[in-house]
Amino acid sequence: MATEEIPEGNSSVGTAPSGFGRARLALAISAGKLAGASGRFFRIGGGTSLPGMIARRIDPNVLKSVVGASRARKIVITGSNGKTTTARMTAIIADFTGQRVSHNRTGSNMLQGVTSVAVNFADMFGRLDSDVLLFEIDEGTIPLAVPEIQPDVVLITNIFRDQLDRYGELYSVAQALNKMLEGLPETSTILLNGNDPQVANFGQNAKAKRLFFGLETTEIGTPVPEQSADIIRCIHCQEDLHYEVAYMSHLGLYRCPNCGYTLPTLDFAATSVQLSPDGEGPSHVKVRTPEGEIELDIPLPGVHNVYNAVAALGATMAAGFDISKAPAAIASIRPAFGRLEKIQAGDQTIYLAFVKNPTSFNLMLRLIAQHSAEKHALIVASNTVVDGEDFAWLWDVDIENIAPDIRDVVCSGGKAEEIAMRLKYAEIPTDKISVIHEREAALDAALKNAGPGGTLYIMASYTPTHELRRIMQKRGWVKHFWEE
Amino acid sequence: MSNEVKDTGMVLKIGHLYPTLMSVAADRGNLFSIERRCKWRGIATEVEQIFVKQTPDFTKYDLILFHGGADREMELASRDIQAKAPSLQEAAEANIVFLSVCAGYQLLGHYYKPFQGPELKGVGLLDMHTEGGGTRFMTHMALECDFQESGRMILVGYENHSGRTYLGDNAKPLGKVLAGWGNNGKDNYEGAVYKNVFGTYLHGPVLPKNPWFTDLLIQRALERRYGHVELAPLDDAVENAAHDAALKLAQDFKGTVSAIDATPWRR
After folding, report:
1. B residues 79-98 lying closer than 8 A (beta carbon) to A
2. Among A5, A185, A400, B88, which has the minimal tally of Cβ within 10 Å of its Cβ?
3. Measured between beta carbons, which residues in chain A are less than 8 angstroms from residue B27?
4. Rounded CA separation B138/A161 (Å)
């Protein structure tokens, strides 16, 4: 968790542990590996954060020791949205060029999940046989994790309104990230989303080299940012920003009419973007890079995946790897679990969409609206430590846009009543809305609504995404998420 | 909802103050709640958005909404609202209904002194001031209110603020805290009322899951213009279920400063 207390480390990076230190490290790694294996054996989870948790209990320096001793290039990916898919794309590009990649690919991105990378991939002596260490890290965990990792590349995807009940307000997260960037050495590279008016301004006083990625086209987007957009005023003089085009939330081509603040020159820019009109992909994209233009066919739909692909290109190149195989690598990508994942359930089809803030919820609704299938829906949100307590943001989701197309919707999870009410106020008739708390019963009711051969759209927060997938895994519709 | 709602001929004029600047916690849900509940009763609504640098005559509205924002946005609003202050005061004295939430609530008081940084001036519609605190209250909240129209009723929602608000003699609290922290975490009161000016820390947003309070605001706003008004009853089963779920959370989390830190891994 972002709020967990981490014992102080006492060994410095790069120095070989003493005899006792080596023994403790070996014990920590073995115990962590064992915990992960039994977690998988007993089907209680993929062992994605457990190995790290156990290993840190035995040796708080386990991450620092293993990563510090490795010669691999270290890439850290953080931000509000897009971390998991960007990391997967970066991994696959590196993999296609023959690099050995170690990666917390299941999206377990708090300190324990990050430490699990070291535990799972290292041998008993803490040696890593990898060329690339790829860490997807929760933005709140960054201040704890980055000093232990000493990354070569730090990529920030975007900062949206997210987890206000954990971090208080948007700007406190941004300040912590900026402070981390300014502490990086000049040998590191910072890769920032130039379309995000706040992120683009990060690291002004950093010693590390800054590079920017983003979109640079008027083929797609809207003239005005959506309601849930956060940074629509100039970060320097507070004047309302003028947008030539907004791609998603507050990401776009912006300029301050007062002080002239505008986006930086993009090093990696999608200069042409053709999205698939059916909401299922692929997108055809031309990307300007320092090594010439690259054309990509991205199998995953939506503008957010264009960002993910361009960011992944940038991260790979910034880490010093060849990107000539990137088009083939990107073309082979499949969605991470729960990212509008298409699941065959007998003669029915399920699309599973993990939604965690207004930006991701709106993106999913926009894609689903383009689908031709009848809209039967299951919406599930829990209030747990990972899903959050304050669910007000649901009222910033533009349900109204898709409400007339909704045939029926089942609401589930600890926030089911709030969801049902939100739908009522989007003027979905109450006889089309039902509340079923129990997860499996809710899934079955929603599938019944969809009818034989029908399609069900599931939008779920983090914990219910896993719960529903576990049910579907038992039914043989999907694999374990750690096998994806 | 039935399509055959009889038109009452009444119009509710809503002024939405700083709809983009002050909108951090999805408080537009309050507007949705008022609009739909009017529509379902055949009452028309007109909404005017009021931005920085604009100085409308606020007495032309029946109901004014003023929501929350982070400190940076609040600073801008504090500066801008000074030009609007005389007309806002006139509207408050003329019994126009105000719903102010969080930073909007704080700015209707005399001033807000952040934990760090310069003091932000309010407009003094509510006799109160706010001082920044070292810890932030981020948890579920419930309070008991007692109004002539409604009798004793419970308001539920979520609070997320570090400001501590202290009322003067001319403002009454909105309600008594049952769970959560409220104005300052000390005197057991939450929110403020003066005439028809209401202020609260309740997000959630507050109106959808407290339909009785929404209706109280609508009724008072209409009665100023149309005399005695009887609001047609609505089926509030969905709203009341959300209300009860929120009340249960508030009770479960009673005594916690930060709900997320006290949240179980599974539920």
Report:
1. none
2. A5
3. 392, 395
4. 16
* B228 in catalytic set: no
Answer yes or no: do B26 and A396 touch at CB < 8 A: yes
Q: Which residues numbered 212-241 in B keep a CB inside 8 Å of some CB on A?
A: 235, 237-239, 241
Q: How many residue pairs from chains A and B have C-beta atoms closer than 8 A?
A: 128
The answer to whether A69-331 and A339-483 have equal CATH topology is: no
Sort out which chain B residues have CB atoms less than 8 A from A429's CB and list them: 1
- H helix or E strand, kind and range, residue A96: helix A83-96
Cβ-nearest to B28 among A171, A227, A429: A227
- The domains found in chain B, sorted by start residue, are 11-262 (3.40.50.880)
Q: Greater confidence, A435 or A240?
A: A435
At A176, the amino acid letter reads A
Q: Is B139 on the interface with A (CB under 8 A)?
A: yes
Per-residue pLDDT at A433: 98
Q: Is B161 one of the catalytic residues?
A: no
Is residue A420 within 8 Å of residue B245, measured between CB atoms? no
Amino acid (one-letter) located at A405: D
pLDDT tens readout for residues A250-305 = 999 999 999 999 999 999 999 999 999 998 879 999 999 999 999 999 999 999 99
Radius of gyration for chain A, computed over Cα atoms and rounded to the nearest angstrom: 22
Among candidates A353, A218, A344, which has minimal Cα distance to A279? Answer: A353
Torsion of CA A319, A324, A326, A332, to 10 degrees: -140
Contact A53, A120 (CB under 8 A): no
CB atoms within 10 A of CB A75: 30
What are the C-alpha distances in Å from B86 to residues A56, A268, A450? 61, 51, 57
ipTM reported for the complex, 2 dp: 0.96
The residue extents of the domains of chain A are 69-331, 339-483
For chain B, say whether A232 makes contact (Cβ under 8 Å). yes
pTM comes to 0.87
Distance, CA of A311 to CA of A268 (rounded, Å):
8
Average pLDDT over every residue of B142-161: 96
Residues B214, B170 contacting (CB under 8 angstroms): no
Please tell me if residue A242 touches chain B, with a CB cutoff of 8 Å: no
CATH of the domain spanning A339-483, picked from 3.30.420.40, 3.40.50.1000, 3.10.200.10, 3.90.190.20 = 3.90.190.20
A422 in contact with B at a CB cutoff of 8 Å?
yes
DSSP string, B76-110: HHHHHHTTTHHHHHHHHHTT-EEEEETHHHHHHSS
Q: How far is B16 from chain A (nearest CA, A)?
A: 14
pLDDT of residue A13: 41
Instruction: Assign domain A69-331 one CATH number from 1.20.1250.20, 3.40.50.20, 3.40.1190.10, 3.40.1280.10.
Output: 3.40.1190.10
Cβ contacts of B138 on chain A, cutoff 8 Å:
165, 168, 389-390
